[in-house]
Amino acid sequence: MPGERLTLRSTSEIGRFPGAAPPTRVQLTIQDEGEKKQEEGGCRRWLRKICPCCCKRQKSTSYDVTDKVELTKVPTPTPEPTKPKPENGEMKESEGVKLSVCSVDLLSSGLGQNRVEHHTDLFHGDELIIRRGQTFQIEIELNRPFSADTDKMHLELKTGFLPKVSKGTHVIIPLVEHLEDERWEAKITEQNGTKIKLSVNSPANAVIGLYGLSVTTGSLKDEAPTTHSSSKNIVMLFNPWCEEDTVFLDDEDQRKEYVLNDTGRIYYGTEKQIGARTWNFGQFHEGILEACLFILEKSDMPPSGRGDPVNVVRVISAMINAQDDYGVLVGNWSGAYSGGISPAAWSSSVEILRKYHSTEGIPVSYGQCWVFSGVTTTVLRCLGIPARSVTNFQSAHDTDVSLTTDVYFDENLQPIDHLNGDSVWNFHVWNDCWMARPDLPPGHGGWQAVDSTPQETSQGIFCCGPASISAVRSGHVYLKHDTPFVFAEVNSDKIYWQKNLDGTFSQIYSEKKAVGHCISTKAIGSDEREDITHLYKHSEDSEEERIAVETASRYGSKPDVYSAPAAEDVQVEVKIDGEGPRMGSDAKLSIVMKNLSSEPRRTTLHSQVAVMHYTGVLKNAIKKDQIPVDLLPSEEKTIEWVLPYQQYQNQLTDQAALMLTLCGRVSETKQVLANQTSFRLRTPDLKILPLGDAVVGKEMSAKITFTNPLPRTLKDVVFRVEGLGLQTGHEVVVGDVGGHSTVTLTEHFIPSQPGPRKLVASLDCKQLTQVHGVADITVLEQ
């Protein structure tokens, strides 16, 4: 109902939403049809239906299901006496009885199928906790057997205070015969008497959070439907196991570490004396899920925005600190911690989150960066977003968006304290979280930096991120969110300025290796430290690193810190011939360099090609090169770039996509060259040739041909063939197909519907995907 607050039941006061009423079960009192016949005749029953005000039931008569709903504890069921079967001509027991729901079982046991398949079995309690983009099961007890010929039923899920269908917060789930991906649907999978089992499917972009469930039943005769509300709610989380979810992570070891591991290590100290402390994230502990949902609710983010992990992460980074929205933790760097707990005393997120929730949102005192990070890891993992705590040693704090760390001196080389707002911390801890970034150009998905420590405001709020680490590494600080601040933390130069007699400042020294050292996180599957500096920045002193720094600085408040190029007269672009490179062959692209000047130009192009998911997330680099280029005046030069098949054959993802990145600097003018080109390796089509006349009711056939483009054997090849109005979908197991071998499959079928039809086929195997074909067939009437 609008305005109704959904709650999770808890076995203790901690973890229960404040004000939640004790759970109740709805029992519907249903009058048996056979007993009705004994109490009143058919004429009186007809008259009562026509004019109920003139012919009311007597008080001693039991009520219809629509007349009375009792909220009671469910009594222990007692066996009913066996009733004699009706003789021929007598009315069947279920005829005329209005279909209604007696109870709903969400099959939410922690060890049950739903929780295990959805990887939520580690959560405390027996609530139904599921992940989006994946089917789940429920059982419904009815007052009589369900008949698809005469009855109808649908489910409804609602979340938030004002659920709306248009916002995705009020979901109407129809019953269907066949489930399809990426939509809300339900299918009856088992029926045993009055009990039915449903398989319910959700899309991978569903809103996450707490849902209330109701079941509506009715008749195809347009009589008024009845609705039964479940006494238990459903929690929907993000799904890193679902390929269509933007938080999908394709490595099981990483999912175990960054989603399911409830303990970790947080690093501190200095780059030469790195310390480590164990942190209890406790995302599955009693009361933590309720606390995380409470944080989302308190943030005032519209429930419709909770389907996008970018929005959710940004809100969480704001809500973990109490700076301007009464969030979880009060920051304190004063050294005086009276009235609270010293930040160094915490070693767990559990007590912090439970205390915040049990006090209905009173901020907990006190936290510093590692505490903010630890709590953020807990909340993100709890909600299903892969996350880790990350420590940066020698971490810069840029206060004026200059993308440099600036130190000011007066004419006598004495520091000017009121201008020296920038600082370099011995260490700073933030978070990485994993997601695709469809809001950014391709190649910027994957790990994103998010920082909950209140340092600087972003759009008027103390939050930071998510910032693409790929964008940080390349100096693409114009990409959202808060990429300039993160870039400055890890890769800004320290610039020293001296005041001139006229009041201006001149740059007197630049320190290029001052910040961003030994960026650390816990290794997967062990307590060892993993250095991930290379993900945030190129190697120090490399040309790529200098290009990134200078590229970033142009978008800061001091764009002239680095000398501008004397000219920008060299162009670089990548061309793809025809339909592009094909799977199984060397990938060949053309790099075209143009010198628009009347002088010779020289540069070295740094090239890197990386595997890329279709979501834009880069998986790993598989080839790096340095290409020296000399251009004569006004010369255009084409460089053939080749990626051998042997280098990519075991590296590709489902979409066989790759990203080629080029960067370089022109020696004579200092012009920076940069280009990113995404391309895919084309897979062969299945060739489908219809044979014979296409006539309704007359057998015809089609020949499907496939040639393996790879020089290796394809294992466990399966064809899938389907044609609406032609034949039902089915699989054909082919088995192994040798390198460069050809397979021919002949399908025999009888068209059942006239008009234009399509016969569709696809091939599936581990070594080769995205192989399909279609044939247009016009079917004539017989």
TrEMBL record:
Positions of the Transglutaminase-like domain: 361-454
Query: Recorded E.C. number(s)?
Result: 2.3.2.13
| Main subcellular location of this protein, as a coarse class | membrane
> What's its membrane topology?
Lipid-anchor
Could you tell me where this protein is found in the cell? Membrane
Recorded name of the encoding gene = TGM1L1
Protein family according to the UniProt entry: Belongs to the transglutaminase superfamily. Transglutaminase family.
Which protein, by its recorded name, is this? Protein-glutamine gamma-glutamyltransferase K
Q: Where does Ca(2+) bind?
A: 491, 493, 540, 545
